[in-house]
Amino acid sequence: MQCKRICRAAVVALAVLLCGCVSPPETALRRFEFTQAQMGLPFRIVLYAPDRQTAEAAATAAFARVKRLNDILSDYDTDSELSLLSHTAGSGHAVEVGDDLWRVLRASQTLAERTDGAFDITVGPVVSLWRKARREKNLPDPTRLIAARKAVGYKHLKLDSWKHTARLLVPGMKLDLGAIAKGYAADEALAVLRERGLSRALVSGGGDMAVGDPPPGKKGWRIEVAPLDATNAPPARFVLLANAGLATSGDLFQHVEIDGVRYSHIVDPRTGIGLTDHSLVTVIARDGMTADSLATAVSVLGPTAGLKLIEETRGAVALVVRKPGERVEHTESRRFRAFRAPP
Ligand code: AMP
Ligand code: MG
Fold first, then answer.
1. Per-position DSSP letters for 73-141, written without gaps between them
2. Which of 161, 165, 227, 242 sits CB 3.0–4.6 Å from 94 for a disulfide?
3. Which residues place a Cβ less than 5 A from the ion ligand 2?
4. Full-model pTM
């Protein structure tokens, strides 16, 4: 009996040694920060590790995961798995998709149903026209906008949960994961770091981020909530986060002003028009993908329907700042204040 116990202890000790599962003591951890251009913007990783070599190896692996995801999920890259799927629109073919694309498509369609199409990844043809509008500073041609809208509609995207296939029913459809893919990539990069034993980490891609366990000795990651405008910004607001996602959506960096009206890069799929209510939505949720997609959805839905959606989503809170006219309006979901950190 005694021998059995000793043997078991020895096996456990050996297993721990082999897999390196013992976390280093908190005091032995140092902070490292890395930034790399990924998905068309700077991706940032902050992590705590025992030494530089471990930190660099983990960050390199996490960035490589983001790069692989971009190769799958990008609508800019004509060879991505997503683009190849879009090319089959109207062909009648059901296309088998890989695990990553499946997860993102599945989550997108669930949110599209919950929001009655305010969040809609089939918005690609309309988004393309607005990208051109931004470049040329001219409103999209109305005839082309009407034609593009015929190829938009989440109900035209059919997923088969058994076979993991996707079918695009209408010719000219184009999927766009710009509102959800960065959050998913942040989650997956964080998972890579965690697999390597570095659970005290933060990954952000633009306004979308995923955070793991807090920095040593802290209750959470202190994150500044982006202001509505970079100029005349009010005193900074901070939130404290651990094992969660945070996303910010709005027209702060991407918009076009035509004839005195400011159009956002986020469009209402039901009208085909870029949002004009000048808003910034911050969502905290259980992971980055959920936060990213919800932030875009709430931007389209506006504060009333948007915050209802948030209240109905477990673990999610949101802050909506809008300036539809002269006045700035702040609205937040009930539990948002629980995440607030002192300035
Ligand atoms: P985000 O910055 O996460 O709010 O995502 C905005 C991006 O998502 C845009 O640049 C478009 O590529 C895409 N998009 C725009 N409007 C929508 C929408 N209503 N639903 C889903 N994706 C959208
Ligand atoms: Mg988003």
1. H-SSSTTSHHHHHHTTTTS---EE--HHHHHHHHHHHHHHHHTTTSS-GGGHHHHHHHHHHHHHTSPPP
2. 165
3. 179, 249, 292, 295-296
4. 0.91
